């Protein structure tokens, strides 16, 4: 009797290394949201009579609407293979360690 594996869905590709991830194999979805923080203080606001200077600055600004939007909010979703997931975890731990050294894998949450 031959063994057959029913494959539902298409193979996925790791968004970092491009490795094919067969249906049913381990993969990881990473969702990242970057949002501008606001502490309730509006610094460097134009005072009365400064509207002309503000308009001149805006006219000189060559950034696209998307670039300006990305400074306020950006969302990203990735599919990663197990190897790239481990690499990302290591980078995140280093990034968030504040000089305390690297924590062992699997210790992102405290």
How would you sum up this structure in a few lines?
The protein has three helices and four strands. The protein is an alpha+beta fold. It is elongated.
Query: What percent strand?
Result: 15-25%
Net shape: elongated
Task: Find the structural class using helix and strand composition.
Answer: alpha+beta
Topology pattern, helix = H, strand = E:
EEEHHEH
Distance between the ends: 50 Å
Our count of helices gives 3
**Overall radius of gyration:** 23 Å
Spatial order of the strands forming the largest sheet: 1-2
The overall pLDDT average reads: 81
Largest sheet geometry: 2 strands, antiparallel
Helical proportion? 25-40%
Tally of strands: 4
Q: Which stretches are low in confidence, meaning pLDDT under 50 for 5 or more residues running?
A: none
Keywords:
110 residues, alpha+beta, two-stranded antiparallel sheet, two-stranded antiparallel ribbon, 3 helices, elongated
Q: Can you describe this structure?
A:
The chain starts with 11 loop residues before the first strand and ends in a 14-residue tail after the last helix. The strands form two sheets. Strands 1-2 form a two-stranded antiparallel sheet. It has a domain at 26-36 and 52-98. It is 30% helix and 18% strand. The chain is of the alpha+beta class and 110 residues long. The mean pLDDT is 81. A hairpin with a 6-residue loop joins strand 1 (12-13) and strand 2 (20-21).
């Amino acid at each position: 009797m031959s063994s057959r594996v029913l494959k539902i869905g298409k193979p996925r590709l790791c968004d970092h290394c491009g490795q094919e991830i067969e249906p049913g194999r381990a993969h990881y979805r990473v969702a990242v949201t970057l949002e501008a923080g606001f502490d309730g203080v509006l610094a460097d606001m134009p005072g009365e009579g400064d509207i002309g200077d503000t308009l001149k600055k805006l006219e000189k600004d060559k950034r696209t609407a998307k670039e300006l939007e990305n400074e306020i909010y950006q969302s990203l979703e990735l599919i990663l293979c197990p190897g790239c997931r481990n690499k990302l975890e290591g980078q995140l731990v280093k990034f968030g360690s504040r000089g305390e050294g690297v924590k062992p894998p699997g210790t992102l949450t405290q």
